[in-house]
Amino acid sequence: MKRLIALYILMQFFSMISLAQVKVEHLKTENRDNPIGLDVVLPRFSWQLNSVKRNVLQAAYEIRLGHESSLSKESGLDWQTGKVASDSSVHVVYKGSPLQSGKRYFWQVRVWDNAGKASDWSKPAFFQMALLNPSDWKAKWIEPGFVEDSVLRPSPIFRKEFSTSRKISRATAYITAHGLYEAQINGKRVGDAYLTPGWTSYNKRLQYQVYDVADLLQQGANAVGVTLGSGWYRGFLAWGGNKNSYGKDAALLFQLQISYNDGTSETIISDESWKSSTGAIRFSEIYHGETIDARQEKKGWATAGYNDKEWSGVKVVNHPMNVLVATFNEPIQKHETFKPIKIFTTPKGEQVIDFGQNLVGWVIVKARGKSGDTIKINHAEVLDKKGNFYTENLRAAKSEGNYILKGEGDEVFEPHFTFHGFRYIKVTGYPGELKPEDFTAIALYSAMQPTGSFTSSNPLINQLQHNIEWGQKGNFLDVPTDCPQRDERLGWTGDAQVFSRTASFNMDVNNFFAKWLKDVAADQLPNGSVPFVIPNVLGPGSSGSAGWADVATIVPWNMYLAYGDKRLLEEQYPSMKAWVRYMTDSSRNYLWNKGFHFGDWLSFMVDNDLGGRTAITDKYLISQCFYAHSTQLLINAAKVLGKMEDVSKYTALLQNIKDAFVKEYVTPNGRMVSGTQTAYVLALHFDMLPENLRQQAADRLVDNIRSYGNHISTGFLGTPYICHVLSRYGKTDVAYNLLLQETFPSWLYPVKRGATTIWERWNGIRPDSTFEPASMNSFNHYAYGAIGEWMYQVMAGIDTDNEGVGYKKIRIKPQAGAGFTNVDASLQTRYGLLRSAWKVENGKFVLDVEIPANTTAVIYIQAEKPELVRESGKALATLNQNGKVEMEQGYAVIKVGSGKYQFTTDWKNELALNSSSNK
């Protein structure tokens, strides 16, 4: 018995040692798990430390990289750093010998913590390089060899058979298209990405995808089949029947590299030997939907042995290869599925299905009927006042599916090269009774990892957060679109910049925006002006609007703050600089007061219930504010990148811009020429006013808000900052009032109307249940969801310090109020999980905080004095070596390292205990 007890104690001892030891997990290359197809020649590596102990920091690391077997043998490595004294665990740059096209590399890391203890080696991760040189491409561009129907443009299909006689060790497919593609090998789909190759400025940057397809191949006869759709390349885009934005002919580029166990290799390429035809997809457009005629399906066409004697050949064409770039951002994939929550007949007698959520994607339909039966599916976001199916706000977009049955038992229809924004579908021609089991809605969006979570004691705010997230999901399909349902769906720069920081809380958008920003730079005009939409399909004349074009400076800086991505900042710096140059060249005496500007888009318009007023802000006042803001961000970037000459140059420019602003738009007594909320918000947020005029400007802002009955009146450019400004100037109670306002205009008005996404307009559905003009009335438009940033940063108090961006140095400063009894928010950072959760109960304020390893945090706890605050039952001062705790404007301030903490204090804050939302 004694021996058993001793053995048990020994096991417990070693278990404790194991738990105390730092573990290295979540290895990523270029922010992705085991990516295949990188053309980044100096990739960056990141990892996370996992420890149950507090105050854990990394003191050193060691990386080794090579073939999979070389890691275990510790020989034949391609790169080994040795022990590097550094606390860097994010974006550590590869510094080994040049990486080779198509080669797969494995790597692992170990670390030493600040106690000098070493971790075990991590589990290996891998990455595979793409084709690094145009000469690596052996494939030829091919187009259909038949005469195309130039009106309906049915999807062309291509096929090629080949044989393999040896055992395959690895097989990699490289695919892209002019248009969209879906590929099959031996009748099985290649990959789980949709709407590939995605949308870029195709003539400058055309993405290709890389797939591991070894499991799809077989010894002996094999076949490749590829279907193309018009997509963004040649489909309808924007308005007025505009199509063929990048070209009029669909084309395919396909290369399959096969490696055999005996060391030999073989390459299958698109070339003259392929065949082409058409199949079941008779029409496919992003705006208008898809027609599938099952009677024209060529069964087995993507498998070996299919008889293609009646097929046409292909045309080999000369398209440039130097524009090809590997895809490093997350592909569009299928995500949530929804079953009908209601099937009903409208007052007009139409059969409609409600899926309960406004989403973006499509519906899979199951049916059984006769040959030639045609099912028509229309899509809509809302029902009208009478409960009828409403599609007027789709404008020219037909957004429909037409499915023609073959008549051979159960049939399943699913689109391929389109997407729809919808909550409801109208079903016409369905053979039989509509049943829930026969209809499934599927959400499509870029496969960004969810990172943020936000909940509170207020169900309406929780629904608002839900709506913000679904607005992002529905509009982040390879590019950040403004809306997903009407004949638009374009990458509007203004929408993207105002929402980018909120987006970084909800999901990991580092690579998503890094990819899109490359197109911002690619489509930026030679004079530095930035187009309204990216990719630019509106032409060179549609550019240069303040608050839209500033995407060139705002989003790179926001990504740097959120992820510490210095490389992105460096790559976008010339674009940032060019935009500031454009504004300067367009100015006279440092005053930018010419050109077209959207202004504070969709700000509050006249409403008799609120005094018959409007809230139009001088557009040139706005442009001057953004001129200053972009210049400040350029200065910030220059400091980070060590460009001190630029720092001096643009610091002088910034002062001149602000001086010109005060002279032109501010009276000697500090009143703004435009007395709107947006005017005061921008002037305060961008520090346009002298210090002595700022507090009274904040007071005037509050007066304006109260004059609107505690309602917001800002548009796209003022809304993202208004609550931040109020909190900054000690008016958090007013910010809470705005957040919790339930009547129009407010964030909660759409929530109370049953919205499941963010609306384009404050009153897309009016109080009398009629609609705003259908010419511009989207019910899935994420811009006003920018309030999410304030909810995370102020309500929950989660922020990154500018001296330790990417949450290397963390600030936790929750500002409770307005009757909320709890707020719980978390964020999966590059270092691990960060959490701030507070609650008010039994007269106590309790703040639970979790800080990831290899970071530090400064935590602010509202208290009259530090002696009233306890941490896990102990005096707060015990957390500091010197036993002192600073007080700052009603907060006890404590610096901590990693770990979990619980702070408790008596709570006498009337703002938190008494709702002031309607005062």
From TrEMBL:
Catalytic activity: Hydrolysis of terminal non-reducing alpha-L-rhamnose residues in alpha-L-rhamnosides
Keyword terms, alphabetized: Hydrolase
Residues covered by the Alpha-L-rhamnosidase six-hairpin glycosidase domain: 451-794
GO biological process entries: carbohydrate metabolic process
Name of the protein described by the UniProt record: alpha-L-rhamnosidase
An MF annotation (GO) of this entry: alpha-L-rhamnosidase activity
Domain Bacterial alpha-L-rhamnosidase N-terminal residues, every copy: 167-336
InterPro entries hit by this protein: 6-hairpin_glycosidase_sf (IPR008928), 6hp_glycosidase-like_sf (IPR012341), Alpha_rhamnosid (IPR016007), Bac_rhamnosid6H (IPR035396), Bac_rhamnosid_C (IPR035398), Bac_rhamnosid_N (IPR013737), Ig-like_fold (IPR013783), Rhamnosid_concanavalin (IPR008902)
EC number: 3.2.1.40
Record-annotated Alpha-L-rhamnosidase C-terminal domain positions: 804-874
Domain Alpha-L-rhamnosidase concanavalin-like: 345-444
